[in-house]
Amino acid sequence: MALPKFIQQNVFTPAEIEFISEYEQITILPLQRMETLTLLEGTYGPFRPPITIKVPLWLAVTLKNKHKCSIQPPKWLNIEMLKKKKQSEEEKEEYSDLPFHYLEISTILLDCASDDIPYSDEIKILLKDIREIRKRKTKNGLKLLNSGSIQMDNLSLMEINEIRPFFLKAFNDIRKIEDVASNKSESQEEESQYSMSRRY
């Protein structure tokens, strides 16, 4: 029995996952002219209002905190879209197809740029509801865990990280049980063959 690749990887801390997510691209609207920024991670700009530009999330947050840009939230981070996602989560067994880093990105943007996100308070509630529904789905899925298959598509990295330690232990325990059962079966078969040979 082979573990799924996403389970085999190391467990990250929440801070490490947030750090990874900060390299996702976000659209900003510069509030002032700025020349090209040449950094170790890459080159960004030039920045010319009112032309929007995509930059890593960490840079968007930095410029926002310095009042040098406004942030355009991702298309999925709006109240109508999240209402549909919540409805989908409630009505279907499958997880809705939210971005791989939706938890980290939404948390960061709602913390530093809530003034750029319409209905930010309502969106926080919707995200919390979606999170709770997905947690229940995961819990129910773990109850059905077996060595045959595992199907949990569309989980985010943070969600995968939370259940990974349990999966590692559960799959190892299942594998041990299967090995014992297999050895017992082989032993019984050998005894049966030996008994048959002695009769003849």
Structure described in brief:
The protein is mainly α. Helix content is 56%, strand content 10%.
Keyphrases for this structure?
mainly alpha; two-stranded antiparallel sheet; 3-stranded antiparallel β-sheet; single chain; globular; 200 residues
Explain what the structure shows.
Helix 3 (57-65) runs parallel beside helix 5 (102-112) and helix 4 (79-91) runs parallel beside helix 6. This protein has 200 residues and is mostly helical. It starts with a helix and ends with a helix. A hairpin with a 2-residue loop joins strand 2 and strand 3 (42-44). It has seven helices and five strands, in the order ααββββαβαααα. The radius of gyration is 25 Å and the shape is globular. 56% of the residues lie in helices and 10% in strands. The strands form two sheets. It has a three-stranded antiparallel β-sheet. The chain has helices at residues 5-8, 14-21, 57-65, 79-91, 102-112, 120-143, 157-199; strands spanning 25-30, 37-39, 42-44, 53-56, 69-72.
